[in-house]
Amino acid sequence: MPKGYTPTWMERQWFSLFEGRNEAVTFGIIAFAVHQAVYYGRYLPYLVCDFIPVMRRYKLQPDKDISDAQWWKCLRSLLVSQIFVQLPMMMFFLPAARLVGFDCGAPFPAWLRVVFQVSVFFVIEDFYHYWTHRLFHYGVFYKYIHKVHHEHTAPFGITAEYAHPLETAILGQGTIAGPLLFNHFIEQVHITTMLLWIAARLWQTVEAHCGYDFPWAMNHWLPFWAGASHHDYHHMAFVDNFASTFRWWDRIFRTDCRYQAYEARRVQKEKAE
What we know:
single chain
């Protein structure tokens, strides 16, 4: 904290959470709480839509219904992974962040800086995810690791993190890579920016797995945003569309050709109806 600097109300509230407590454990609990709130909170509107008949017109695969058994199996698996794989990793994050030079003090970064950094993180994660995901579709990587995620050919919001623990750990490195590279080569990343980045990434991945293509979805007004229709095809066909957030890598390397043809037919069919 700079000499003579007076923390804002928000900064004081943040630091008060750590007073007299183990900081690593406290941050881990905060990160976990943010993760769970955003992940399941983002899914809630889609869950509600599942019970509203008029919303079925926006389903990408309306002929496929999720059974109660599948839903509960997914939730149980998620909670085990989140509590026993992700939570322990979060407990170690604050000490590791300090070790590599993350900013953990005051003042908090300006919002424009946060938005810029998070945007860069999205680009880096998307690049990492594209190539790692392609690798996961080969031989033993698919058979023993990635096949778990593809149990759901018609994904629904919370299937975003339904995966083998190794896949969770390996793909999770892409989420961490952006902040680490940015912090090392460009400028310091604040620990709170990391939390906001995790929240934004969760928001995006739940949307990508939601199973709905609403007219107001981001892919309809933000160029190259992948969205649910892009990733839903990947689950349905088991091929192509390997990127997580944007469409450009699939477009450049022509791993979206079959999707483009399928999507054109789907849209034409919707217009005819």
